[in-house]
Amino acid sequence: MRNLLFRRKNIADLLKKEGTIQLKQSLGAFDLILLGVGAIVGTGIFILPGTVSATHAGPGIVFSFIIAAIVCALAGMCYSEFASSVPVTGSAYTYGYIVFGEIVAWLVGWALLLEYGLAVAAVATGWSSYLSALLAGFNISLPTAISGSFNPAVGTYINLPAIVIIFATAFFLMLGIKESTRLNSIMVFLKVGVILLFIGVGVFYVEPTNWQPFLPFGVSGVLSGAALVFFAYLGFDAVSSAAEEVKNPQRNMPIGIIGSLLICTVLYVVVSLVLTGMVPYTDLNVSDPVSYVMQLVHQDWIAGIISLGAVVGMMTVILVMSYGGTRLLYALGRDGLLPKSMAELSPKFKTPVKNTWVFAILVAFCAGFVPLSKLTELVNMGTLVAFTIVSIGVIYLRKNKNIPSGGFKVPFFPVLPILSFLMCLFLISQLSIHTWIACGLWFVFGLIVYFVYGRKHSTMN
Q1: How many CB atoms are located within 10 Å of the residue 3 CB?
Q2: Residue 62 and residue 44: Cα distance in Å, rounded?
Q3: CA-CA distance, 262 to 282, in Å (whole number)?
Q4: What is the pLDDT of residues 426-444, one digit of tens each?
Q5: Which of 54, 96, 163, 276 can bridge 364 by disulfide, Cβ–Cβ 3.0-4.6 Å?
Q6: Please, what is the angle between helix 177-202 and helix 249-278, to 10°?
Q7: What angle do CA 459, 78, 441 make, to 5 degrees?
Q8: Helical residues (DSSP H) of 203-299, grouped into ranges
Q9: Each residue's pLDDT tens digit, 87-140
Q10: Predicted pLDDT of residue 19
Q11: What are the structural domains of the chain?
């Protein structure tokens, strides 16, 4: 039984081209950077800098973002070594299969399904709210019954805008990754343009006295702030899902992962500085701090543009996280742990059309009917579980003599992977007991699926 549960994939077999239809290699380093920025810069930059500075870190939130970025960069380097050594779709799931065995890989894949699925559903729900606010600026209002999750007490029954955006995203993903990245690129440029507009205008309203005191909650406030803003970086791991569709992955994967993290960190830090410099940090505990401060300085037209930027920004997060989820289902189906139909590629589009729509329907149901406010922390748990496995897995990967030479290597080995592992464990410990219980139930359900179906149908048999 132990040999069955911990059977590992052979790297040489993974790198062979199997079957007649393959995922098309069409992405370069710049495409990957835009994918990363598209996934990372979303609700985080428009909400977290205000709420976390008001309640935890004050102007010192810039240090919170830098600390969180360091944790993500350490995990990102571990991802980069895996992605350049084993350029196969499946992200942390595939990496776990190589170094730890099938049962660990399945649990990591199950955790990632939770991350991608709930992230898409939660962001789509938020996108619906921002869309309603944007339309209200044009005196257009959506019927209450179709603009929120099922809650008859307040008159909402279905969140139709959230369902529509998820299905629209699935349609673009069905057409192909190159077409999807083209759409993502346009939206990322719009989103970053809006952020730069805020910085360019807001800097003239900065009053240095608002930065005093810089650390009102002390160092502990900065650290607790880092545990919260860490979640603003979620999504860069979805870039590693593109490994099989990348030209020259040994070079381009590390550039895409580390490059997107670097760009997003700079944007987060500068926005936080401008935001806390424009008004006292105590006034920023609102749901739309970036728009709010622009209204305070009577720049209402910019506040409207920022609302538009938030709507566009969330669309890119939905796109990239949906992409990560469909490619994970593809890997699980190809390995037999889920039905083989999950790994079927369309001869016309060269994409997994069936699993794209299965993923979209399941996630759209959650976004349309289920209130997700209590479940969003599960997204973070799923991500951190994957980060810990990848961080410690690099040490085992280096011992494997079948790894092709060349590609990116984590510097200061093994210190940085161990440091990344410990930091991720620390952040997991910061999550609430309710999250631990809900995540435990999810994993129990996953183990049932594995023992009833996956173990019998695994291609490793």
Answers
A1: 7
A2: 14
A3: 28
A4: 888 877 788 889 889 999 9
A5: 163
A6: 30
A7: 60
A8: 218-229, 249-278, 289-296
A9: 777 778 888 888 899 999 999 999 989 888 988 988 888 788 778 878 877 888
A10: 45
A11: 25-457 (1.20.1740.10)
Q: How far apart are CA 325 and CA 386, in angstroms?
A: 14
- What is this structure's pTM? 0.82
- DSSP lists the bridge partners of residue 233 as none
Separation between Cα atoms, residue 315 and residue 21, nearest integer Å: 30
Provide the Cα torsion 366, 371, 374, 378; round to 10°: 10
* Count of alpha carbons within 13 angstroms of residue 316, beta-carbon side: 33
Structure tokens at 254: 């590390």
Q: For residues 38 and 30, give the distance between their C-alpha atoms in angstroms, rounded to a whole number.
A: 12
The residues with which 332 forms a beta bridge, in sequence order, are none
Full DSSP string of 415-430: HHHHHHHHHHHHHHHT
Among residues 435, 36, 48, 421, which one has the least CA distance to residue 232?
48
Rounded CA-CA distance 323/305 in Å is 27
Instruction: Specify the length of the chain in residues.
Output: 461
For residue 414, cis peptide bond before it (omega within 30 degrees of 0): yes
Instruction: Say if residues 306 and 294 touch (Cβ distance below 8 Å).
Output: yes
